[in-house]
Specification:
Structural class of chain A: alpha/beta
Strand content of chain A: 15-25%
Largest sheet of chain A: 5 strands, mixed
Order of helices and strands of chain A: EEEHEHEHEEEHHHHEHEH
Low-confidence stretches of chain A: none
Number of strands of chain A: 10
Oligomer: homodimer
Largest interface: A-B, 48 and 47 residues
Helix content of chain A: 25-40%
Mean pLDDT of chain A: 94
Shape of chain A: globular
């Protein structure tokens, strides 16, 4: 069996032809333009997949990583993902390729990818946070992806961290959830506000990366913005450790690329927010597979689905 | 096989002789006096158990529910439980009865008891909160108790809800954890403070029960104290639902006896703190076994331990 794998990422799409053990040919990457939602974006990735699928080979199945809730039966629960409200992703892919299709949530897929091939290798219980345009989560318990009763487990980004009336709101989430306080755009928002309040200019193309870079240089405004966001992320990581008692927490997504400027304060603050007897029981480490974790995790999910 | 079961509760101890299916003879209950810690309290429960063990019967094992962390190998991690620092509970029981011993954390045992015989029957994924002199948790995933890497999973009471510098601290926990904001003594503390601030007298023997009773009668001071505590508990319940995507959350412990005065606002606030797509996916219900959940859960844990 071979796996024709797709990752419908927020800003990039990927596809490749992989073996069940995760080995794969070249990964085809496509940049998504901001207006390429739902059906339009699907058509572009389909086209790329059709080319890959022309190569001769064994019986194939289609594996998909999707950036939104996925029901346990592989149906996409996409009502709150802009552009996907009416797209039957699994059905379209199945019709296009005349192959069985297995869809996995991208954070769950990322957890599987990191567990089998990346920073989570060798652990029995592992939690995965992806911190990028949102905050997603996945969890491996007893070596297996745990999905929950409705395929909605490990929604760490939606834990309420700030229940005050003035808590910030982000995308479709409730006010004050972790995602609204510590994802990339939230850090960017808070960085802009801090610079504005200090009467400093906001650099062109300002993102959360500027905040981490300036914090690394020791600039006070940036360290304050970073530490506030990292404190919230640390509370989320500590809550996941309290819930699952994992051996390791793997942090991926664009924000995790900040390296020590993120992980040094994060580890310190996670310890602060854990009960004494859970301190230093779980490692907090960066993801190892970068942008490919979800794509490779989708391969694992499909290979193990019995499809 | 029969099971000689013990529950070392905070204020009461229990023991009984049970069958693996949970059926049991009369439960012997003992009230613990405040100075009866560790070895002293152990001796009293041992004495009661010896009497029960005189009855003729099949091969027996000892099952224990203990109110503190228990390592996955059944060793008691009791360094932070006053009076138990140097007591080898499993070893003492094993020597006393010359029988194999199986120790389970009381909240984990409560979860097992409610899942097999109580309010969690028929669910595949269930979380259990016990709200009494502290807040403990247990979780059943795929029908089995999930213990985590170090036997410390589902420590819901130690999730940080209030990270502000003035957050209250309670027992050995970090400041601002759920337990410090919403357990029985925390509600009592906040009720006393509120009455004091209003210049009202504090009734003799004042406890959290007075707060719920007065809230039920519509007294504003009590509704405010109750709603503040219940909002924190709701955030903890919502965080557990985000983590595990369970079908049901069972709430036990003394505070849960407040009935609708607790559950009506709790259900409303849990919904407020969940992402839209997780609203109303999990029932929030009172425990059914009252004080016996942990004792009967210890029976289940021992029966299924393969000991």
């Amino acid at each position: 069996m071979e796996i024709l794998a797709f990752d419908f990422g927020g800003t990039r799409g990927r596809c490749c032809l992989a073996q069940p053990d995760g080995s794969h040919d070249d990964i085809v990457g496509l940049a998504r333009s901001p207006d390429e939602h739902g059906a339009k974006w699907l058509a572009r990735l389909l086209e790329a997949g059709r080319e890959l699928n022309q190569a001769p080979g064994k019986r194939r199945i289609v594996a998909i990583s999707f950036g939104g809730p996925v029901a346990p039966d592989g149906r996409v629960v996409s009502m709150h993902v802009p552009g996907w409200e009416k797209v039957d992703l699994a059905g379209e892919m199945s019709r296009a390729f005349q192959l069985p299709v297995c869809v996995e949530n991208d954070a769950n897929a990322g957890a599987l990818g990191e567990h089998r091939f990346g920073a989570g290798r060798g652990t029995r219980h592992m939690a995965y946070f992806t911190v990028s345009t949102g905050i997603g989560g996945g969890v491996i318990l007893d070596g297996q992806l745990y999905r929950g009763a409705h395929g909605l487990a490990s929604e760490f980004g939606h834990m309420v961290m700030d229940a005050s009336p003035k808590a910030p709101q982000y995308a479709a989430g409730k006010p004050g959830v972790l995602e609204a306080l510590a994802c990339g755009p939230a850090i960017e928002r808070d960085g802009r506000a801090k610079l504005g309040a200090l009467g400093k200019p906001v650099p062109a193309g300002f993102t959360s990366k500027h905040v981490f870079d300036a914090a690394r240089r020791g600039e006070t405004w940036a360290m304050e913005v970073r530490d506030a966001a990292v404190a919230q992320l640390a509370r989320g990581v500590a809550a996941a450790i309290c819930a699952y008692d994992v051996e390791r927490v793997v942090i991926g997504g664009g924000v995790s690329l900040a390296g020590d400027a993120l992980f040094e304060p994060l580890r310190r603050m996670v310890t602060r927010y854990l009960p004494h007897y859970l301190e230093n029981k779980a490692d907090v480490v960066p993801a190892a597979l970068g942008d490919n974790a979800a794509l490779l995790g989708a391969v694992v999910a499909a290979a193990e689905s019995g499809t």
